[in-house]
Amino acid sequence: MSHKKILVVDDDPHIREVISFALEKAEMSVAIAENGQQALDLFTKSPSDLIVLDINMPEMDGLACCREIRKQSEVPILFLSSRDDEIDRILGLEIGGDDYVTKPFSPRELVARINAILKRTQAQQVPEETSDSCLRQGLLTMNTEEHTVSWNEESVHLTATEFAILAQFMQQPSRVFTRDSIMSSAYQFNIHVSDRTIDSHIRHIRSKLAAVGCKSVIETLHSVGYKLAPCE
User: Fold this and answer.
1) Residue 94 is part of which domain span?
2) How many CB atoms lie within 10 A of CB 1?
3) Of all residues in the chain, what percent are helix, strand and coil, respectively (each to 5)?
4) pLDDT recorded at residue 127
5) Contact 76, 34 (CB under 8 A)
6) DSSP strand pairing (148-151 vs 5-9)
7) pTM of the model
8) Boundary residue ending a domain (78, 94, 125)
9) Are residues 117 and 15 in the same domain?
10) Which cellular component appears as one GO term in the record (predicted)?
């Protein structure tokens, strides 16, 4: 994942320095911002491939910054949070985050999570000659080449992680997926995320599709996992 541009946004200069060093060591270029407003201005002038965004900052916090960025771009966003229990806000429907890391964090893990998100995003942008790029289930349609999802011809905007999870279900519509199988496919590099993170992504996929009239998209099989619903 060399030569990718990462925008690092944090009001703590030490954290910015640690992250920048780790990313540059991984052969990525880095732009930095001290607050959400500065990040928004920088991104508008020169878009990045991914944003590492702290939540609690002056001027404009990370959540407000993410909302503004989502008005113009689906760029992957990885949040930095000082509280693990903020996950629902971080990955929420109205926020649009792809992943999060809780402070204090390992720079190596942060780089691995960034690589995992970039790998998913790149895979969704590159046509796969060996597979059908257009997937359908009832009125639900997904195009893996164009990275689009629609219900009854109405577009649905998913984050890179949400898209990757839904693609699993669409590609194997009769399969029951455990949380572990979802995790291993959506998160590369042997990264472990909690069951709560997976459940949160599933909940937000459901919410986004329900907003356009799809009342059933992913079924829960209690004590087993999830599977694709009929989508009619």
Assistant:
1) 5-125
2) 18
3) 40, 20, 40
4) 45
5) no
6) unpaired
7) 0.63
8) 125
9) yes
10) protein-DNA complex
The total of other beta-carbon atoms located within 10 Å of residue 131's CB is: 10
- For residue 107, is the peptide bond before it cis, meaning its omega torsion is within 30 degrees of 0? no
- The residue from 98, 125, 152 where one domain ends is 125
Counting runs of H as helices and runs of E as strands, what totals does the chain give?
A: 8, 11
Strand partners, 154: 151
The verdict on 68 and 156 lying in the same domain is no
Predicted confidence (pLDDT) per residue in 187-212, tens digit? 655 555 667 778 888 888 998 999 99
User: φ, ψ for residue 113 (rounded to 5)?
Assistant: -70, -40
Q: Are residues 10 and 29 in the same domain?
A: yes
CA-nearest of 184, 140, 190 to 166 is 140
- Give CA angle at 72 (33, 103), nearest 5°: 40
d(CA 62, CA 103): 15
Whose CA is closest to 99, among 108, 91, 89? Answer: 91
Segment 53-74, tens digit of pLDDT: 998 888 888 888 998 998 888 8
CATH code of the domain in which 85 resides: 3.40.50.2300
Helix, strand, or coil (residue 79): strand
Q: Considering Cα of 43, then 117, then 111, then 95, what sign does the dihedral take?
A: positive
- 146 or 68, greater pLDDT: 68
Residue 161 DSSP SS3: helix
Q: Which two tokens stand for residue 230?
A: 């009929």
